Structure formats: structure tokens, C-alpha cells
Amino acid sequence: MRRREFITLLGGAAAWPLAARAQPAERVRRLGMLLGSTAPDRPDVASFLQALRQLGWSEGRNLQIEYRWGRGNAADIRKYAQELVALAPDILLVSGASSLTPLLQATRDLPIVFTSVADPVGAGFVASMSRPGGNATGFIQFEYSLSGKWLELLKQIAPGVTRAAVLRDPTQTAGVGQFAVIQSVASSVGIEVVPVNVRDADEIDRAVTAFAHAANGAIVVTASALTLVHLERIVALAAKLRLPAVYPRRLYVDSGGLISYGFDVVDQFRRAAGYVDRILRGEKPAELPVQAPTKYELVINLKTAKALGIDVPTTVLARADEVIE
């Protein structure tokens, strides 16, 4: 090698670290998350974060996440919604209508991806399912027709039931809508339904205890942030009063509830990561259609059934996605 070529090569090598240092750092995006419970390691959140990593977004490298946990407290949810919006994140992820409402009141500019919302059109969150039209899009947890199946399922596993207390949040559009569907199918399955509001724990205790004084009763728990907040109390109350109960999510059955039928929340959060990725890469929420669940799951707790003296029909067991023994 000639002397001039060697010096040129050596000079170039010496410049490599400087060139590497001169490379612009990858832009860090900020994601704000407003969720209902306080368990950061819960399966749906873990699924969401894993899916983000697979799409190239890693917390601490190119993504910063601000977590807020509402726990069903309306005042806290409003405060956290305002806090997150004030941080001006690149995107927001929210779970449930009760948390989505204050976020949309706080911003009509920042992009929002929602999960677990029952009726975004009826609640005025989006213009339509196919063309949301605003700054929010996401995933519904079910169509209202599913609510009638809870009552039918209850009658299948406990044929002697003639009365059902329906736990719902009357302040939410979805709470009213779910009860309306349940009420519409009640006569066809031979069950009288009674609404029970879930504003606070004492109200639930008083209403359900009074309801249980008469025979052949059961419980239908509708989907809402408040029923999730009071999950342990509701499951314990059903066991104490020996009332068969059907729930909208498997989380209740994992905690000792009898039976649930509803969307797969882990799968929905995984799909939500795809929308977060697409929006961070330049797509608009207004143009991304609101999607329905693609997976539903039926989960049965046979230990609870045995404690209640219920012999679950083999036809129902055969349809179950999971049986807890």
C-alpha cells in the first residue's frame, strides 16, 4: 500500500467515532395511558407492550410512557385526563368510556386510541364506525346484542332462576343500552330483571342483599368501569348470598365468579398496539375504522359451580374456551 493511501485510510478510520457521534438520535415518542386498574403487570397491558416492541417501539429507547390509573374514581379520572393532555404526548391510549369521556373533553387534537368501549357512536365519541372523523378511534368491547346472551346463558346453567339483579352504571350510555337489551329478552327466557346501580359499594351491598331475600334469584353483571372497580366485592357478595352470576369478562371468573362470556381483552390490547403504531407513523385516527372484537371467550369456574350446587350442562361445558377446576 502506498504511503498516501495508508494516511488517507488512517485518517478516515479516526473520523469514524466522530461520524457515529454525529448521527441524530432516534426521536423518542411519548405515549399517555389512562387505564382503570392499578396493576401495571396485568395481562392486557403486558400484551400491548409486547406487541409494541414487535412493531419497533421500545420503552426507554424510542418510547416514553406516562401511566395513569383511574380506578373508577370520576374525579381522579378527570384530573389524570387533564394531566396527560397537558404533557402533550404524541398519542393517548385509554380503556373504557368513563375514561374516554374526560379525555375528549380535554382535547380534540391529540390522537386517541381506545379499547373496551361499548357504544362509541351512541356516546358521541365518533361519527361512525367506518369513519370516526375526529381524533379518536379504537375497539369496541361488544355489540349490544351480546347482553341478551348473558341472560340466556344464566338460564342454561341455572334453569330454576326466575329473577335476576342486573348490575349496571346508569350514568353511561352503555349501561342503559345493555340493560335495555337484557330487558328485551327477559320474558322469552322466563326471568324477571331488576336494575341495580353500581355508584358505590354500599349501594351494591344494600340492593343485592335486599334482592336475595326472595328465592330463585341470580345476578347479571354488565360491563363498566365501576363493576370492574367493585369486582372483588361483587364476586364475594354472589358467593355469600349463593346467587348464580354471569359476568362480561373472564377476570371475574379468575377471581371466583361462576361464568363469563365476553371479548378477549388481551387480544384487543394487542390489536390496539397496531393502531398506536400506525398513528405514530403518520396515519390519522379519523380515517382508521373502529373495530369490533374478533375473539370472544366463555369461561366457567367449576369450583364455584359446585359450591353453589350447580351441575353445569355438558352442552355448555363443550362450548367453553376454558374451564377452571
Strand order of the largest sheet: 7-6-8-9-10-11-12
The rounded distance between the terminal residues' Cα atoms is 77 Å
What would you call the structural class?
A: alpha/beta
Rounded Rg:
25 Å
What is the H/E order? HEHEHEHEEHEHEHEHHEHEHEHHE
Number of domains as seen in the coordinates: 2
Describe the global form.
Answer: elongated
Classified in CATH, the superfamily of the largest domain is Response regulator
Low-pLDDT segments: 1-24
Range of helix content = 40-55%
How much of the sequence is in beta strands? 15-25%
Report the average pLDDT across residues: 89
Largest sheet: 7 strands, mixed
* CATH class division of the largest domain: Alpha Beta
Total of DSSP H or I helical runs spanning 4+ residues: 13
Per the CATH scheme, the topology name of the largest domain is Rossmann fold
For the secondary structure, the number of strands is: 12
Protein architecture, described:
The chain is α/β, with parallel strands linked by helices and 325 residues long. The chain has 2 domains: 29-142 and 264-294, 3-Layer(aba) Sandwich (Rossmann fold); 145-262 and 297-324, 3-Layer(aba) Sandwich (Rossmann fold), CATH 3.40.50. 44% of the residues lie in helices and 20% in strands. It has helices spanning 3-22, 43-54, 74-86, 97-106, 145-157, 173-189, 201-211, 225-229, 231-240, 250-254, 265-280, 302-307, 314-319; strands spanning 29-35, 63-69, 91-95, 112-117, 136-140, 163-168, 192-197, 217-221, 245-247, 259-263, 296-301, 322-324. A 7-stranded mixed β-sheet has the order 7-6-8-9-10-11-12, sandwiched between helices. A 5-stranded parallel β-sheet has the order 2-1-3-4-5, with helices on both faces. Helix 2 packs parallel to helix 11 and helix 3 crosses helix 4 (97-106). The chain is elongated, with a radius of gyration of 25 Å. The N and C termini lie far apart (77 Å). Mean pLDDT is 89; it is low at 1-24.
